[in-house]
User: Fold this.
Amino acid sequence: MADYPVTPGTPALTEQEIIRRQKLQQLWDKGENPYLITHFPVTHRSAEIVANFDALEGQTVRIAGRMLSRRIMGKASFAHMLDGEGDIQFYVRRDDVGEEPYADFKQWDIGDIVGVEGAVFKTKTGEISVHAAKITLLTKSLKVLPEKFHGLVDTDLRYRQRYVDTIVNPEVRDLFIKRSKIISAVREFLDSRGFLEVDTPVLQTVEIGAAARPFRTHHNALDLDMLLRIETELYLKRLIVGGFERVYELGRVFRNEGMDATHNPEYTSLETYQAYVDYHEVMEMVEQMFEFVAIRATGSSDVPYQGQVIHLAAPWKRISMADAVKEACGVDWTQWQSDEEARAEMDRRDIHVEKDAKRGDCLAALFDEYVEHTLVQPTFIVDYPVEISPLAKRKPENPALTERFEFFITGHEMGNAFSELNDPIDQRRRFEEQVAQRAAQGIHAEIDEDFVTALEYGMPPTGGLGIGVDRMVMLMTDSPTIRDVLLFPTMKPV
Assistant:
């Protein structure tokens, strides 16, 4: 057997992989190395040629992409290539490209990346194609593309090898193009309303804020333990203090928690903060944003999702958490006289809560059990208990509740918002309670003293919003799991 290029540690090769490496060795023996080609000046892409055929017919173009199929018919061949916009056929004839280049072409493999220069024409069957005058092998593919790379049995492999998934499954590639359009539409919406996009630290030193477990790391130069951020909230509110009246951040946050259809340890978050508005005005903005983005991304505010049609046009339903729970299971939390009575109700219903759970915690547990999964059409759940809302402003008429809402679509929480707490004394008290609760659970946390200092300088009345962007993308691409809308979801190594 002829020699072929391998390096120590190369995994065992299949017969087809050995043949491809032998072909590469033959190229090297001839003094040719496709990996040394540094550029190929592309003039047109597939979709552009198809869309402008009348103007381009007979014109010379240069196209490049991955060869997906080939039909050799003696002295002439047809092949298809995939580029960044789609696929297109090219026609290669020995008398046009030369005998030796044509012989080389017949040795190329499906998956090779090729360049073609030639004239645009239409075949007898009406297919728009490029008649090659010159062909170039730009990259040799040493792996065999699978004929079919979809279906439940291959789901894990698709996520691990997204680069193959997007080659052979054009609908997956289209989904991620749509994801990009969705995120661009979010930015367009916010920019048009005078929001400033900013970046805040990913590495942080204080564990406080949302009830989520962080990833921990260590900064060697400073000999300092640090955390990957679980949210962007506290830094963005510092900017409101600093005079930026409308800010937002679109970026990755990290939570060291479980994984399921709607959770990934790292995900894309959108947080916005706007001075001089309350949670009612933020609700209106959410309705307008989702409708705007849906129309930009799908052409309609009615979005199909897993066999249902979700109506995103305003207005959305609004109902308090207490009323939603009362409607669902008959429990009126205002009748509980103590935290002990609330926990006893949880015991009767076999709903787990922490041993020191308060009335508000128990109301939230009832909501999770009886209500959340029923909220298919867009619904704002408003007025959350203060115990589970450490950063939200209390309702003036009922200090046990906060001016907070979450909104739900398809039975899942899509975002969280509130009239931001700007009382530094109340904020410190709530931080202290949060630290004590975590200490009781064996979790270290500490007060963000710098954030309290910022509030002491004075933060104007502010409405804040946080949205899980990946869940928004799931909704607008009809995707049942978050891993379908992440290019590289977190996976356990094989």
